[in-house]
What we know:
Blueprint: E1 2-7, H1 24-41, E2 45-48, H2 58-67, E3 72-79, E4 89-93, H3 99-115, E5 119-124, H4 128-131, E6 137-144, H5 148-155, H6 157-175, H7 186-197, H8 213-229
Parallel strand pairs: 1-2, 1-3, 3-6, 4-5
Antiparallel strand pairs: 4-6
Helix pairs in contact: 1-6, 3-6
The structure holds zinc ion.
Amino acid sequence: MKIGIDPGHGGEDPGAVGPGGTYEKDVNLAIAQRVQFLLSRMGIETLMTRSDDSSKSLMTRSNSLNGARVDFAISIHCNSSANPGPNYISTYIQAAGGEAELLAMRVQARMAQSTGWPDGGVRIQNLHMTRETQMPAILCECGFISNPAQELMLKSSEVQTRIARAIVDGISEFLNIETGPPAVEQWKQDIMEQAMKEGLVKSEHDAEEAAPKWFVLQVALNLLDALRKT
Ligand SMILES: [Zn+2]
């Protein structure tokens, strides 16, 4: 499994520029880097079409994704309008009815939910990055950089992380990958089992859970009880 991540614009091309002077290219890269970090932490290989502030043509980007034969491609952009009003979040695909639409629906739902921004839904549009890529590809428009309130939020590291997390959660849901906590280590389970056998713990307990004071006191009382019996 290899996922292509394409942070829109870069270098001489700032993308859209917010009313406060924020460059779309910087927000796109910050979100993309967080997506890459979260995916690699899950053991998923990634390919970034740019990992710094460099200029890359659309053709170079689609060629590198096609050449690396990534399984899915995610382009990351921010939307912009001449009117400061629009503030929805949306995801674009080339056509309905394929894997890209299923992936887009999952990612879009997570992004709308985690940002709380108006849900612009999954939209169909003829775009280079969704058309010229040979794998299912989606393009996320992570809110409007032309909306003053949203521009401020898009600049914040916390919001960038939240959007990245939502994209990765959508991908995981689509791929059916568990992102839950790792399984309890065997040695913790062994201790819990032994304590049950000795009567120090009377019922099943989650070995990962922190022990509150009452629980520790109860175990100590059970220990005293067990000692008296011997
Ligand atoms: Zn863009």
